[in-house]
Each structure stands twice: as structure tokens, then as C-alpha cells.
Amino acid sequence: MTNRFVAIGECMVEMAPTVEGTYSMGFAGDTLNTAWYARRMFPANWDVSYLTAVGTDAVSDRMVAFMQDSGITTDPIQRRTDKTVGLYMIQLTNGERSFAYWRSDSAARCLAADIAHVEKVLAPAKIVYFSGITIAVLPEADRTAFLAAVGRARAKGATVVFDPNLRPRLWPDVVTMCNSIMDAAAVCDIALPSYEDEASYFGDKTPDDTAERYRKAGCGLVVVKNGPEEVVCVSGEGRTVVPVQPVAIVVDTTAAGDSFNAGFLAAYCEGVALEQAVQAGVRLAGAVIGARGALVDRAETAA
User: Fold this and answer.
1) How many CB atoms sit inside 10 A of residue 29's CB?
2) What's the pLDDT tens digit per position in 45-68?
3) Assessment of whether the complete model's pTM goes beyond 0.90
């Protein structure tokens, strides 16, 4: 097992608003955002890889080239001759974002169709990272096979990290979403839920309720994000609460949680104490939401 961070999910074409009132094209997606920031935050002796499926068209070529230029290993990416990548458009109102999507037949929905390929990619991984969106875009049979493969990677020593990232529009219904999220929680070591979403769909009354539910599912460590409020961490060693310094100006919250996850994991997986690792995630997320777009160059951040 090597120092390899494997993120799994869907990367899409991003159309982001500019100050001129037009849109600029980029590439993003929740797990890709985390991989992008992870490459910048993890030490150089770590490999950061991305597992997805894309097309063989020009825009798919540009997407893969973008990842390569960002230092992300693209060898795990599968190419499909029959499909292309999805697209989303960001709409901003007072710093809060909403999205319009075109992704219903994207290549990423086939990322787990070849489960032998998935297992081969996960075999040398030290950290396996995926989200609720990763499993939401998969057909039911592929989702079941994917979670089983992740569970086998965990049994062989990989640390599995899961951000539930609840997006009900991607699921047939809320019951299916919630059941699938908890199935994923059962094969992970670290869960990184966002309290607002969890309260909305699971009915959690407090962040501690969220943490306890994921702990009961089998997660060793649960780090509950809560926007500008304190971060609640619960593990077998107890409960830790980390305050969050308010951000003076919020420009775009698109990748707040994704960047937090990268900053936290880069510190925590290198042996930094839990509270300091959370603070690293908070600092990075705070810098990211002060700029436009999902991916903010490290020169613009205070990570």
C-alpha cells in the first residue's frame, strides 16, 4: 500500500458566472474539487488519483488534460465511446449558489460498470474518498457492487472516507437516498457530513445526533460540518468541538465543504492532531468561499 489518495466520482463541465455577467468554462464536481485541493495540500510524496468515466470527445480530452495539469493522476479514468461528460451552471445570489444540471446520461454513471477495474484501482490506495453524489449517479446494481468493492478495500487496510453530500434530486426518492447513504456509511472509517443537510433529510435535532447516527453505522470518526458554526467531531476517543472563525466576505460557497475535506484530510492523515486538522480544513474553506468558482488557486487562499 502506497501513499495514494483515490477520489471517486463525477467531474463535470462547470459554467461559472463572471463579474462581467458572462460565464467562464471550467471543470469541477464535488469529489474532483476535493482531489484538486488535496493535490495542493498533501505532501509531494502522496499520489492523488481520480477514478471516473468520461467520453472520447474533445471536451472529455480537455477535462482529462486539466486534471493532469493540476497534478492529479488520471490513469484510473475510463473512456467511453458512447457517452460524454455532464455540465452544470452556477447561479449566485448574495454568495449562495444554486445549480442547473445537464448530466442525466453522463459517462460517469458507468464508472463502476467494470467492477474489476474499480478493485484494481483501489488495491494500492491508502485513502479511498467518495461521496453521496458518487453513489447517487450509479445504477442500483453498480452502486451495490461499488460499495462492496470499497468494503473489500477497507478490509485490506485502506482508510475509507465518505462525504454524504445529500442531493435528493439525484435519487428516485428520499427514502432510497437515506438508505443508500447509510449503506455507504457502513463501509467507511471517516464520515464528513454537513449538519444542515442531515437535519433536513434525517431529522437530526443537533450535530451530535448526526455524529451518533454515523458512529452507530460503523464510522470510527465523524466530523460534522455546520457552515459558520462550530465543527463537532465524535470518535471512540470522545467528543471534540472546534470553533469556526467567521469569514468577513462570502463570495461563493460552491466548494466550501469539498475544500474543507481536503484541508482536514491532508493534515489528519499526516498525523496532525484532530483539532488542528479541523482548523486546517476551516482555514482552507474560509479562503475558498472568499473567491469565485469551485477551484481557487492556492495563491489566492490562506491555507
Assistant:
1) 31
2) 999 999 999 999 999 999 999 999
3) yes
